[in-house]
């Protein structure tokens, strides 16, 4: 099953603590860190595979996802597999 569209990820600035845990855990490097504001930002939403690791690890719950179909074995989803290809 393919999602056919980009996952929508939001980092809520007022909740983000700037700990960079999402930057470190993301397997596809979706996040960037704004040094000036000391906040994480979504830099590459098109690479998101909806593993939700960032949302689970965020201590302040600043990250939300929309427009995704949760797949326990995301590597079996052809669309997500294509996105992962450039990281392997």
Automatic annotation (TrEMBL):
Superkingdom: Bacteria
Sorted UniProt keywords: Iron, Iron-sulfur, Metal-binding
Residues covered by the 4Fe-4S ferredoxin-type domain: 7-36, 38-68
Molecular-function annotations in GO: iron-sulfur cluster binding; metal ion binding
PROSITE patterns: 4FE4S_FER_1, 4FE4S_FER_2
SUPFAM superfamilies from the UniProt entry: 4Fe-4S ferredoxins
Pfam families cross-referenced by the UniProt entry: Fer4_7
Protein name as it appears in the record: 4Fe-4S dicluster domain-containing protein
């Amino acid at each position: 099953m393919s999602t056919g569209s980009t996952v929508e990820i939001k980092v809520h600035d007022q909740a983000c603590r700037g700990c960079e845990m999402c930057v470190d855990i993301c397997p596809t490097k979706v996040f960037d860190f704004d040094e000036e504001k000391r906040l994480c930002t979504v830099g590459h939403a098109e690479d998101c595979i909806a593993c939700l690791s960032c949302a689970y690890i965020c201590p302040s719950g600043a990250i939300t996802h929309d427009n995704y179909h949760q797949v326990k074995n995301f590597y079996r989803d052809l669309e997500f597999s294509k996105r992962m290809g450039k990281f392997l």
